[in-house]
Write a structure and sequence with these properties.
The protein is of the alpha/beta class and 283 residues long. It is built from eleven helices and ten strands. Helices cover 41% and strands 16% of the residues. It has an eight-stranded parallel barrel with strand order 3-4-5-6-7-8-9-10, surrounded by six helices.
Length: 283
């Protein structure tokens, strides 16, 4: 597995296992165990996924040393403040049954982001968090955080898939030395992505699946990518992407699929901001 080095020297396995929407406790626990068994060493969860405890049990039962794993969790909107981060981090750590977190992210760009960031800087300085970053932030918000704080964000986790490629955003973030991480690389199956003729033709050329083509496309851009499946065979398939390379022609064809719009929702939509602000999880 190839690693990516963050701007503070911490290394992250390039392909990670995402746990979004795996909410049933036993299923989530088993999924994490199977993912680690399949070779994943990078596991991503969040307070709002409501599965941190199950993820922690999976990590504990995996049989793999904690030092070999890279664990991410995210601070939900209601906890995005100085005190909110410090308090909710303790609860997340307890649910995960861990002594430290490898990467802590602000999940959404709302609430008291600057107070939250100050708390995250303190957690990183204490050694209880190895890297800090954001999720779903526009480039200007990332630069703003970097300009007015001691520590610049080390990661920005954003939606990237063949239908929403975000090429300019990716380039801008890389110029700021912020590592880009892709959520929803398969667009959660939208637009019949797994039967897309362009992606299927490319996959057939290398005897690879559409999912493997997409992961490889991201890997070749040095983008961290989170894949998700509860099927162990697909878990193994999604990580088996280091034995082929895409041609320039392949990449040009994939570029043609870009619709330049989110496959889910806009983070600048006022109604979405209000909805997230009202989503109190008590976590």
């Amino acid at each position: 597995m190839k690693n990516i080095k963050l701007n503070n020297g911490v290394e992250v396995p390039l392909v990670g296992f995402g746990t979004f929407q795996i909410t049933e406790p036993l299923e989530a626990e088993k999924a994490v165990i199977n993912a680690i068994k399949s070779g994943y060493r990078h596991i991503d969860t969040a307070q709002s996924y409501m599965n941190e405890e199950a993820v922690g049990k999976g990590i504990s039962k995996s049989g793999v040393a904690r030092s070999e794993l890279f664990i991410t969790t995210k601070i939900w909107v209601e906890n995005v403040s100085y005190k909110g981060v410090l308090d909710s981090f303790e609860r997340s750590l307890k649910r995960l049954d861990l002594e430290y977190i490898d990467l802590l992210l602000i999940h959404q760009p709302y609430n008291d982001v600057y107070g939250a960031w100050k708390a995250m800087e303190e957690l990183q300085e204490s050694g209880r968090v190895r890297a800090i970053g954001v999720s779903n932030f526009s480039v200007d918000r990332v630069v703003d955080l970097a300009a007015f704080n001691k520590v610049a964000p080390q990661v920005n986790q954003i939606e990237i898939n063949p239908f929403h490629q975000q090429t300019e955003t990716i380039e801008a973030l890389k110029n700021e030395k912020v590592v880009v991480e892709a959520w929803a690389p398969f667009a959660e199956g939208k637009n019949n992505i797994f039967s897309n003729p362009i992606l299927k033709d490319i996959g057939d050329k290398y005897n690879k699946s559409v999912a493997q083509v997409i992961v490889r496309w991201l890997v070749e851009q040095d983008i961290l990518v989170l894949t998700k499946s509860v099927n162990i065979n697909r878990m193994k398939e999604n990580i088996d992407v280091f034995d082929f390379s895409l041609s320039t022609e392949d990449k040009e064809k994939i570029a043609e699929l870009d619709l330049s719009t989110s496959q889910f929702f806009s983070h600048s939509d006022p109604e979405m901001v209000k909805w997230m602000a009202s989503r109190k999880l008590g976590i």
